Amino acid sequence: MRLASFPSTAVGGYRFGVSDRAVVAIASSVLHDVGLLTSNNSDLVVDKNNLRKENSKVRKDLKFQDLSEAQALPLKGLYFDGRKDSTLIEERVDTKRYTRKSKIGTFISY
Fold first, then answer.
1. Which of 49, 54, 55, 66 lies at 20 to 30 Å from 23 by C-alpha?
2. How many whole angstroms separate alpha carbon 47 and alpha carbon 64?
3. Residue 40 has pLDDT above 60, yes or no
4. What per-residue string of b and e applies to 85-104 under the rule 16 or more CB within 10 Å gives b?
5. Residue 43: its H or E element
6. Phi, psi of 31 (to 5 degrees)
7. Origin, by domain of life (predicted)?
8. Is residue 75 over pLDDT 50?
9. Residue 110's pLDDT is what?
10. Do 77 and 110 form a contact (C-beta atoms < 8 A)?
């Protein structure tokens, strides 16, 4: 039985392109260091399949998030860090969704 989910851990690994195994190793070691994960209590064990499920849940939630809620978030600053990253862009044409890669500058918002 799973007692907790870790959406921020899943998003962090997905955002920075870290492998699922590395994210799981880091999350498990942090839980062990904090004392939440012991040999007697292993309910919070994180494995790569649970991380992948959490990634898909977070992506689905973000995809269907209301645009007005996203625009209501306060944007304190927008900075350009000068890097050119490959960004995955999803376009909707009628009922179909098309994805393409685009090389654009990376913006960091705070």
1. 66
2. 26
3. yes
4. eeeeeeeeeeeeeeeeeeee
5. none
6. -60, -35
7. Eukaryota
8. yes
9. 45
10. yes
Identify any residues that bridge with 78 across adjacent strands, giving them in sequence order: 109
CA distances from 99 to 25, 30, 45, 63 (A): 31, 35, 34, 13
Question: CA torsion sign, 100 to 12 to 59 to 45?
Answer: positive
Structure confidence at residue 80 (pLDDT): 58
> Mapping DSSP to helix (H, G, I), strand (E, B) and coil, where does residue 95 land?
coil
Does position 26 have pLDDT exceeding 80, yes or no?
Answer: yes
* pLDDT band for position 16 (cuts 50, 70, 90): confident
Quote the CA–CA distance of 51 and 60 in Å, as a whole number: 14
Element (H, E) at 93: strand 78-93
Instruction: State how far the alpha carbon of 23 is from the alpha carbons of 18, 33, 36, 47, 96, in Å.
Output: 7, 15, 17, 9, 33
